[in-house]
Design goal:
Layout: H1 28-63, E1 68-74, E2 77-83, H2 90-114, H3 124-146, H4 154-162, H5 166-185, H6 190-205
Antiparallel strand pairs: 1-2
């Protein structure tokens, strides 16, 4: 569970390369700002990762499922998974497996609602958090479509617990992420806002499927 698939996307204000006239000496102050922005952007991504894991752990503790860290491999890449005792009731398993995505979706919803013009703001920390949430969900969706990756992956746990094919879960995880990315660029889009919220709510309501 909680295997991270993350590709860092540097937003313009977080890029290290700065535009300057040909032959001009490097602008050390601009370079310092770029480094600080990049650090904040990556810090936001790390914060989002921690929040994803915290979502799982909170419900692990609530349901007393004996959470622990287990080494896993994503292809040749060593990583870890936060796992718990098997044999949990379907609703508990689905809740724990889904919790990381619920945290991501809730934090994106808060950001896009409270700061609809986020794209135009100088906010590398918030943008790093948002980018991680979107890219992590898209990555999980792709893995779910392929039915690949470690056994402990979130999407497999969600699918097995409610008795649906894993690609269906992949689409459910990916859809709000893509809609939120669209909202980031088109903050005035009402259809994208409500479609995103509907998919997020539907994900939570599936806890009652069994």
């Amino acid at each position: 569970m909680a295997i991270v698939v993350f590709s860092t996307v540097f937003l313009p204000e977080a890029a290290l390369a700065q535009n300057s006239p040909a032959g001009a000496p490097p602008d050390s102050e601009s370079d310092e700002h770029a480094v600080a922005d990049t650090a904040q952007f990556l810090g936001g991504a790390a914060l989002a990762f921690g929040a994803h894991e915290a979502g799982h752990l909170i419900f692990d503790v609530i349901f007393q499922t004996n959470p622990r860290i287990t080494p896993v491999h994503f292809g040749p890449i060593p990583f870890f998974a936060v796992t718990h005792d098997g044999g949990q009731p379907a609703r508990i398993e689905y809740t724990i497996s889904s919790a990381g995505f619920w945290v991501q979706e809730a934090s994106n919803e808060w950001l896009l609602t409270a700061r609809p013009s986020l794209r135009d703001e100088h906010a590398p920390l918030a943008k790093g958090l948002f980018a991680f949430n979107v890219l992590n969900s898209v990555g999980y969706g792709i893995v779910a479509f392929a039915r690949a990756g470690p056994y402990e992956r979130d999407t497999r746990g969600m699918a097995q617990s409610i008795g649906v094919a894993e690609p269906v879960i992949g689409a459910m995880v990916m859809a709000p992420a893509l809609l939120d990315a669209y909202r980031y660029y088109r903050p005035d889009s009402r259809w994208a806002k409500w479609a995103s919220r509907a998919v997020k709510a539907g994900s939570v309501l599936l806890v009652f499927k069994r």
